[in-house]
Amino acid sequence: MSKSHKPILISTLGFPGSGKTHFARRFAKDCGFFHLSSDRLRLEMFPEPTFRPKEQAAVFRTMDYICEELLRRGISVIYDSNCNRREHRRRLKNIARRCGARYLLLWFCSPVPLALRRLQDRKGVEAPHLLKYYRPVPARVLFSQKEEIEEPRREKHVKLDSSRSYQRQKEEVLNYFHKHERS
């Protein structure tokens, strides 16, 4: 994907149902990134998650450690989580800087009715490999996280319309990298 040999760290911003994981999983496969998923890691660490602060801290400490180790080895990472707060994104940008990696934020913007429909559709997931990780998310969580989003200010980011196809979103991200490629 890149002429430079620097690894890339991509973080995601958006509320549940905005398409972060759908995009991250496919993009990682298509572009050779490691897909680091907070939902998946949380369920491996805590089979019955509580989402309490102590648990949150353990999940994100572990994710940050894995992310940094991968970047140091030259492996690009898509950090699939609700990076809704600027302080979280600053932390990831600092990890990228320490590892000599490029950093980009993907902001998934979704109409709320579409996100609600996607969350509802999770109840119909039957594929065994997805069942564990596609747990239903109550609408109240979507609205709560939507209110917590701190929009990017002077952060390198690509704003993705979640109602567009994955292919179109992928093109937008790749176009960003091609425009900002360092020789």
Question: What keyword list fits this structure?
Answer:
5 strands, about 180 residues, 8 helices, alpha/beta, 5-stranded parallel β-sheet
Summarize the structure in words.
With 183 residues, this protein is an alpha/beta fold. The chain has 8 helices and 5 strands. The chain has helices at 20-31, 38-45, 53-72, 86-98, 112-121, 128-131, 139-148, 166-179, and strands at 8-13, 34-37, 77-80, 102-109, 157-161. Helix 2 crosses helix 3 (53-72). The protein is globular. It starts with 7 loop residues before the first strand and ends with a helix. The relative contact order is 0.23.
> How many distinct folded domains?
1
Poorly predicted tracts of residues? none
The number of distinct β-strands equals 5
Order of helices and strands: EHEHHEHEHHHEH
How far apart the termini lie comes to: 13 Å
Helical segment count: 8
Q: Indicate the CATH topology.
A: Rossmann fold
Strand-pairing-aware structural class? alpha/beta
CATH architecture: 3-Layer(aba) Sandwich
Strand order of the largest sheet: 2-3-1-4-5
Computed over alpha carbons, the radius of gyration is: 16 Å
| Biggest pleated-sheet summary | 5 strands, parallel
CATH superfamily heading: P-loop containing nucleotide triphosphate hydrolases
Mean pLDDT figure: 87
The shape is globular
